[in-house]
## 1
Amino acid sequence: MNRQLHIGKKHPSRQNLAACDFRLAHLFPMTTCVLPAHDASQIALAASEAARLLAKGEIVALPTETVYGLGCDALNPAAVARVFAAKERPSFDPLIVHVEDAEDIHCFTTVRGNVQKLVLRLAENFWPGPLTMVLPASERIPDIVRSGLPTVALRCSAHPVMQAVLKNLGHPIAAPSANRFGRISPVRAEHVVEELEGRIPLVLDGGPCCHGLESTIVAVEAQCLVLLRPGPVTQEQLEQFAPVRRVAVGGAVFAPGMMKSHYAPRTPLYILAVGECLPEDAVRSGLLTFGNEMKGFAEVENLSRHPLEAAPHLFAALRRLDASGVSRIYVHEISESGLGMAIMDRLRRAAHE
Ligand code: AMP
Ligand code: MG
């Protein structure tokens, strides 16, 4: 817990750091505290401490039902800048804004008419839950949150910790995943500590995230939904409300966060078709598979063949393989139906060219 971040020199003085740009200046070594938030009384205590820090413009990691988020007061541009700095996230990649309930759609967006009707139906069916909607932003949302775009991504989490912090703060919370940019999203408080220790003052530990994959993101248009990121709310579920158009990763349409390389372990990762023969370097490699037997690898993580059971364990298994010292990670493909689409999306983006 006391490991400190040093930049350049062994013991950087504040003066040295002040000369650096804002991004580095924010990486002052600080103690990262972890507060338990498992039952109602712990949540009440942890949420009020988190809200106290957030109201001062600090940043705090907290659980949602998808992955852990790194939260800040979404209406405070200086606090939002701290999130970008701690994550080393490029400023062109906008943040998701968490709101208390569907009423906030009226406060923070300018959506009207038929689109508004569709948005409210989606909120009624999927909120609170792992669905993020990209909507025209009201001017209350600072530019920095939306990276200068005219839209804002809104989400209403079902997690009791996120809900309690939102209630205590009384402002929306901008919260991207609590990992350094491009890395695997954290699904346990320990993962957040691995990623951001020394850069943030507080992590609320609400245990493992139940979905384990980032939220589904859709842009809501007049006649259709544009699926920007597959996630726990599946394309099949969304199609019951409107036709769904999928945006290809790395395709012509630029959607922030749709960078081809993302969610990546440090160890090079390769996708392997089930039934493909044993790679030559298997003895030095790890395998992540979904219910298949395959001998000959140095390390094996065998998750369920059912995507719903596999997803909550996916990122933790990838982290274990990454930390095991293998030289490559091979991953078996899984069928793309239902939640399998989101799993394959993350694996493709984690994969080596
Ligand atoms: P994350 O770090 O997982 O929370 O990523 C948030 C992602 O939400 C971004 O990388 C974008 O893909 C998406 N996003 C947020 N705001 C917008 C927006 N205004 N338009 C399109 N996508 C957005
Ligand atoms: Mg992320």
Note: The chain has eleven helices and 15 strands.
## 2
Amino acid sequence: MKTEGIIIAIDGFSACGKSTLAKQLAEKLDYTYIDTGAMYRAVTYYFIKHQLDWNNPAQVAMALAEIQIDFRRDEDGSLHTFLNGEDVEKQIRTMEVSASVSPVATISAVRRFLVQQQQALGEKKSCILDGRDIGTVVFPEASLKIFLTADPQERARRRLKELLEKGQSVSLGEIVNNLTERDHIDSTREDSPLRQADDAVVIDNTVLSMEEQLAMIKVLAEMRGA
Ligand code: DC
């Protein structure tokens, strides 16, 4: 699809630091940041909260007709995910949602629903989106596509630190299991599996600082007119 602004797509495995990077890059370039994983998490949270069976197509259709997702900034400027007007930023980051989000993201009706909204959000503005299928499905014409990877142990350690800082009690083992399972489901599902776009730039950030990653991507973005 043709967009009016510049689109930067950041895809990769779970807990590679995509959203931290995308958020900071968006601030530097003054672009809109769209956290597509948060949208899949919000749908999953809705299913859990209303005790719906996501393997039942009629229940999925009914749920999607009721779901409205948007992003709003709070007083300190941080971005929060809203589900039908309720701030669900905290709820969607729990291990309970993390354990179910990948199966929910395999459902084609859910993907169609969210991809359409992501494309509409990015149609008129310069945006940075992070997810699994941004460079392959949502915006295959993106100006810059980054595929982020990192060593699995390092990813688990980073995620553990993040969750402990948020006050969640979780073990490294639980996180390793969750990341392994999500990577497997996300990259083997039938509809829009996680894969590197042919024209993506691959960055392994295991030993890179955030500043180094930002500097690299800023140069790549500027080369493409950002
Ligand atoms: O980025 P994240 O960990 O918050 O994403 C949560 C899940 O959502 C991830 O395991 C797979 C799914 N997802 C997806 O299928 N496509 C996207 N564009 C973004 C996320």
Note: The mean pLDDT is 95.
